[in-house]
Amino acid sequence: MKVAIAGGGNIGTQFAVHFAEKGHNVYIHTSKPEKFSSMLSIVDHNNNVIHQASIKKATSSDKEAFQGADLIFVTVPSFAMKSAARQIIPYLKKGAMIGIIPGNGGGELAFKEAIDKGAIIFGLQRVPSVARIVEYGKKVCATGYRQKLYVAALPQEATNKVNKLISTNFDMACGTLPDYLNLTLTPSNPILHTTRLYTLFKDYVPGKTYKKVPLFYQEWDNETTKLLFKCDEEVQKLCKALKDYNLSDVKSLKIHYENNTIEGFTHKIQNIEGFQGLLTPTVKLDNEFIPDLKSRYFTADFNYGLNIFMQIARMYGVDMPNCQKIISWYNSIRDINFNEFSFDDYGIKTKKAFNRFYKM
User: Fold this and answer.
1) How far is CA 61 from the centre of its chain?
2) What is the largest distance, in Å, between two alpha-carbon atoms of the chain?
3) What's the CATH code of the domain at 32?
4) How many helices (H) and strands (E) in the chain?
5) What tens digit of pLDDT does each residue of 213-247 get?
6) Full-prediction pTM beyond 0.90?
């Protein structure tokens, strides 16, 4: 197949290696093609090469990357999905498959027109592993590969086809999700990151600085876990209110991280191998710090994460006070230069319109 990867970052590089390794012609669409080697590697935390393959080309040309592609993976951040869709859709061939990785963040609606043109849209509930660039355009470190991936597609009847594609090319078990909303409402980063940022910076106002900021995961605290549990319960409450959908695979974070006590959950987050050493998104001013409001932890996980949950909650009349407290705090400090997701932009203003799209 011709496989195009939109985005040459952590996930894009990892996916490029896996699919090139299986013999596909892989094109990476990036603004920095000159930085890419034709041979890309995935290494473990000891820098041992675990996967390696040669891609066909890295290019900044929309036409060269996407025209005639059988499979396109979109790995750009959620706020760039609309822009990516504008670049990809003019070159789509009928029957092309477009994978949004990961599948939350509203990307499915950015590609609504692609479905009308006969494309299949799909997403993974979570990425195959934690991946971090070691050397841009050459090497990525991947740790903690999952036992199993989960996929959903629009139209829904294409899910089994996509399942086979993913399991074959990653050599991993892959399960099918009953409704695409299992991806949209997956509470990973939209709850995990937003609760942590709130407890770290809830007293932040412009002009305030911090002498020291804890590591994001490694110094996770019980205060964050308590708030996360409350928000996690509100997401489960929202899922129960969407009675037209089977959302049994929107698992509580307590189940996902296999801990239902505050102390146990905190300890688990602090000790996950792939999370070690990750910094809190900040900007350094002299010798002090302020939150980096341009970081994806803010611009993606609030604007295109928690914000989507809250819009669906309002549509269905579900009260989510803790999530609302966090989104209200964020809106008081957010960088207004970054757009946020809105169902209204896609003509979805009622439950009927919502169901028409997600039940196709």
Assistant:
1) 24
2) 56
3) 3.40.50.720
4) 15, 14
5) 999 999 999 999 999 999 999 999 999 999 999 99
6) no
